[in-house]
Design goal:
It is a single chain. This protein is of the alpha/beta class and about 500 residues long. Helix content is about 30%, strand content about 15%. It has two domains: about 260 residues, TIM Barrel (Alpha-Beta Barrel); about 100 residues, Sandwich (Immunoglobulin-like). It is built from 13 helices and 17 strands. An eight-stranded parallel barrel has the order 1-2-3-4-5-7-8-9. Strands 10-11-12-17-14 form a five-stranded antiparallel sheet, covered by helices on one side. Helix 11 links the parallel strand 4 and strand 5. The protein is globular and about 75 Å long. The N terminus is likely disordered.
Length: about 500
């Protein structure tokens, strides 16, 4: 009997321990699920669970910064590091005459000259805030292989060399202090194909392979070792700076990066869950000039498409971004660059937002860390326009149609130079609550704005209660008939470009 009692007691203890063990497992899993409510896997199906965060859809306008060692030679473009080794490029001879033979004075020799002696991250952040930007994205590493952050993966970084400062870290602090989001960009994947490496040049020396890469045929796929190195550099940026946005250049569009980009996206999205914040991963589509084949790094829904110097001619279902530069010739600083007008850039911003997108506008600072006055003036002009009209941009969404007018938008990589200036007949719409914003991209010369798509027969809206002009106290007179909504303009313009009529529905 006692033996039977002992048997029951033992069995009870075993069952209780098993139950406690299972309970502990469940509690642990529950705790993990609170930390990681969605677990992304490195597959396209899993990554399509991604959702664009509200902050990005609300922000609409960000600043891109191409700043690096390439600002020192200040010639051609930010691709100087590649072109100075290309015998078929005019910059090859320019470099020899200006700086010396590439066997002795290579790109590495510019690094000690990149001192950033006048750089003030707080001044940058203040300028970008005054420009109306809601997020800031510096280039963390360009194709040249020089990291603009405190890296433990490569010694070729801005803390060890050049400025001897953590550029990304200091700017992140200044930007976030002002309530803006902070992102980083990586162009490093194309480092494998970037340099023309030859025994005639300094870049064939193994001592500098951490910058230039090891000698290899650039037409061959990136090696597994290089892809692993790229992954580790990218992962370090994620872990160290917790970027709200990560922008990737076309380099990782190549097939050999497919698994790597799936893995880094899953890692980034899962870290965002840990951080309890929404993040953005920008990827590009790129048409290879040699064969005309368009490469897209991610399927729709797995990230946010970025179009370089290109806009969409239509509303895209998935939120998207245009990146373009204030300057016309280069992304990085060069001597004798030319700059776009704020009128053109405001029109671009309006057109993009009306089509479910946002604008990332680039500046190229000098090697000492100062931003050219021409760029500052453009930024402040945009900020002045947004101060009056930001209500029609920030926190808005695209409407049923993007707008109307005769001026189309060119489609294709780097196609912005084909676009024509907008006219007063070109009108774009955004919406917020019961307000519809009609934005004319020029001031009608006859003093009357005609919006044909809002005529009295349209099914787009039922009725209008009032119309006001942002930035103006004038009483707006209007009329609807079967042809158009006609608005009589006041005598005085409220701003210099892109005029916003708020239509209360």
């Amino acid at each position: 009997m006692k033996q039977l009692q002992f048997l029951f007691i033992g069995l009870f203890i075993v069952l209780t321990m098993a139950s406690c063990t299972e309970t502990n497992k469940q509690e642990r899993r529950a705790a993990e699920s609170k930390t990681t409510s969605v677990k992304f896997q490195p597959t396209w199906d899993s990554l399509k669970q991604y959702e664009v965060p509200k902050w990005n859809q609300d922000a609409k306008f960000g600043i891109f910064i191409h700043w690096g060692v390439y600002a020192v030679p200040a010639a051609g473009s930010e691709w100087y590091p590649r072109n100075m080794y290309n015998k078929d490029n005019p910059l090859f001879e320019h470099h020899k005459k200006t700086w010396g033979d590439q066997s002795e004075f290579g790109y590495k020799n510019f690094i000690p000259m990149f001192k950033a002696e006048k750089w003030n991250p707080d001044a940058w952040a203040e300028l970008f805030q005054r420009a109306g930007a809601r997020y800031v994205v510096p280039v963390a590493e360009h194709h040249d292989g020089f990291a603009m952050y405190d890296s433990s993966v490569t010694k070729w970084n801005s803390v060890n060399m050049g400025p001897k400062r953590d550029i990304c870290g200091e700017l992140a602090k200044a930007v976030r202090k002002r309530g803006m989001k902070f992102g980083v960009s990586s162009h490093y994947a194309w480092n494998w194909r970037y340099y023309f490496i030859s025994d005639e040049f300094d870049n064939s020396n193994p001592e500098y392979s951490g910058l230039y890469n090891i000698p290899h045929d650039p037409k061959t796929p990136a090696s597994p070792e290089f892809i692993e190195h790229w992954y580790n550099r990218t992962k370090e940026l994620i872990d160290k700076y917790q970027p709200d946005l990560f922008w990737f250049d076309f380099g990782f569009c190549y097939p050999e990066f497919e698994q790597g980009r799936k893995e880094i996206a899953a890692y980034y999205y899962n870290k965002a869950i840990e951080w309890n914040k929404g993040v953005v991963l920008n990827y590009k589509r790129w048409t290879k000039p040699a064969d005309g084949v368009t490469k897209v790094a991610f399927p729709d829904g797995a990230g946010t498409l970025d179009l370089e110097r290109e806009k969409s001619p239509r509303i895209r279902e998935f939120f998207w971004q245009t990146d373009t530069s204030i300057s016309e010739k280069s992304w990085g600083y060069i001597d004798n660059d030319t700059f776009k007008s704020p009128d053109t850039l405001v029109d671009d911003l309006v057109d993009i937002v009306a089509k479910n997108g946002c604008l990332l506008l680039n500046v190229g600072p000098r090697p000492d860390g100062t931003i050219p006055q021409e760029a500052k003036d453009v930024l402040l002009a945009i900020g002045g326009w947004l101060k009056i009209n930001g209500e029609a941009i920030y926190n808005t969404r695209c409407w049923k149609i993007f707008g109307e007018g005769p001026t189309g938008v060119a489609e294709g990589h780097l196609s912005e130079s084909k676009n024509k200036a907008f006219t007063s007949e070109d009108i774009r719409f955004t919406r917020k609550g019961t307000a519809l914003y009609a934005i004319t991209l020029d001031w009608p010369k006859d003093g009357v704005l005609r919006i044909k798509s809002l005529n009295s027969n349209t099914n787009l809206i039922k009725g209008i209660s009032s119309i006001t002009l942002l930035g103006s106290k004038a009483r707006i007179k209007w009329n609807r008939d079967s042809e158009a909504l006609t608005i009589d303009l006041p005598d005085k313009k409220p701003c210099d470009y892109a005029y916003v009529f708020k239509i209360s529905l």
